[in-house]
Write a structure and sequence with these properties.
single chain; 335 residues; alpha/beta; Isopropylmalate Dehydrogenase; Rossmann fold; 2 domains; ten-stranded mixed β-sheet; 11 helices; binds nicotinamide-adenine-dinucleotide
Length: 335
């Protein structure tokens, strides 16, 4: 029996979380869920977007499955997602992008892993207006040698463990000579220790273009926080959209699994969101818990339902879609 924290989230979160839990339980894994609220529902109830009992729960269980949480744009409370990553030092954000047969997308056979540094640089929240008139603002992005080394090592170790061939470090060291320069210097040094893997580096603007015109040349990609956030959305676009892209936030003492996408307020409450990304985040979670057989079962059921294309949500079959819950039921029936 595993004890796991469930944070359903807001927007489309509760509906996709409900489906993900049903699918995971149908795979036969025994889980005791500790359900806690964060974000908008927690503000309504506890006047705090990240109540202490949520942190206590994750500290105890060490593993959470999390629906998306809205972050107000430009003002309002700071991102709860970022706060959770910082609180538990979840330094590695692993975001795979795999093609699914049956999904209309620009390319087939995409198999990319983006590993994003998750705690430093422009997401650390060191930012302010420089004067009361708000005539200018600054954000300070701190990149440390130790933070760079642990994420780059994580990427190389991941590549080795998963029999990958190449690690591409993405940076902007030509312009960001200190932060980008430090990250690149560490990457080149660590890369020398992994002679069994191909090591390369690319400037982020060129990388974005290369990923669009020839994504098959890449394998494992490691980069700093902001570039990783942007490139992982790009890579999910390559395989058919955000509805299929899962992510894991990994630290030494805890791990939080979630979809790459956000709370999608434009489609919330309509039973039309694709639950696959969060289900696939659940698959990553089961692998983390060494429940590989259940993970494989769910993954192939998701792939089979998507390949067939009859019981999928609107983003995958706009002409004749089913709802979020019905897609979940089809996945369960396929297991
Ligand atoms: P979004 O990812 O929520 O939505 C982008 C587009 O993709 C929308 O058109 C949406 O309808 C669509 N989409 C997203 N998930 C989908 C799904 N499962 N099925 C079908 N379509 C889907 O991005 P946004 O609108 O920029 O952000 C909304 C909120 O989510 C913001 O407050 C943002 O801060 C937050 N956010 C949270 C997380 C997280 O919890 N980790 C991640 C990203 C964004």
């Amino acid at each position: 029996m595993h004890k796991i924290t469930l944070i359903p989230g807001d927007g489309i979160g509760p509906s996709i979380a409900e489906v993900a839990v049903k699918v995971i339980e149908a795979a036969g894994v025994k889980i005791e869920w500790e359900t806690v609220e964060a974000g908008l529902p927690a503000i309504d109830r506890y006047k705090d977007p990240l109540p202490q009992h949520v942190l206590d729960s994750v500290r105890l269980t060490k593993v959470a499955l999390k629906g998306p949480l809205t972050t107000p744009v430009g003002s309002g409370f700071r991102s709860v997602n970022v706060a959770l990553r910082k609180e538990f030092d979840l330094y590695a954000n692993v975001r795979p992008a795999h093609s699914f047969e049956g999904v209309a997308s620009r390319y087939a056979n995409i198999d990319l892993i983006i590993i994003r540094e998750n705690t430093e640089e422009f997401y650390a929240g060191i930012e302010h207006y420089i004067d009361p008139q708000r005539s200018a603002a600054e954000t300070i992005g701190v990149v440390t040698r130790s933070g760079s080394e642990r994420i780059i090592r994580y990427a190389y170790e991941y590549a080795r463990k998963h029999h990958r061939k190449k690690v591409t470090t993405v940076h902007k060291a030509n312009i960001l000579k200190y932060t980008g320069g430090l990250f690149l210097e560490v990457a080149r040094k660590v890369g020398e220790e992994y002679a069994d893997l191909i090591t390369e580096d690319k400037i982020v603007d060129n990388m974005a273009m290369q990923m669009v015109i020839n994504p098959h040349q890449f394998d494992v990609i490691v980069t700093t926080n902001l570039f990783g956030d942007i490139l992982s959305d790009l890579s999910s676009g390559l395989v058919g959209g955000l509805g299929l892209a899962p992510g894991a936030n990994i630290g030494y003492d805890a791990a939080i699994f979630e979809a790459v996408h956000g709370s999608a307020p434009d489609i919330a409450g309509k039973n039309i969101a694709n639950p696959s990304a969060l289900i696939l985040a659940g698959v990553m979670m089961l692998r983390h818990l060494e429940e590989d057989a259940a993970a494989d079962r769910i993954e192939s059921a998701v792939a089979s339902v998507i390949r067939e294309g009859r019981s999928v949500t609107r983003d995958l079959n706009p002409g004749s879609p089913v709802g979020t819950r019905e897609m979940g039921d089809a996945i369960i029936a396929r297991m």
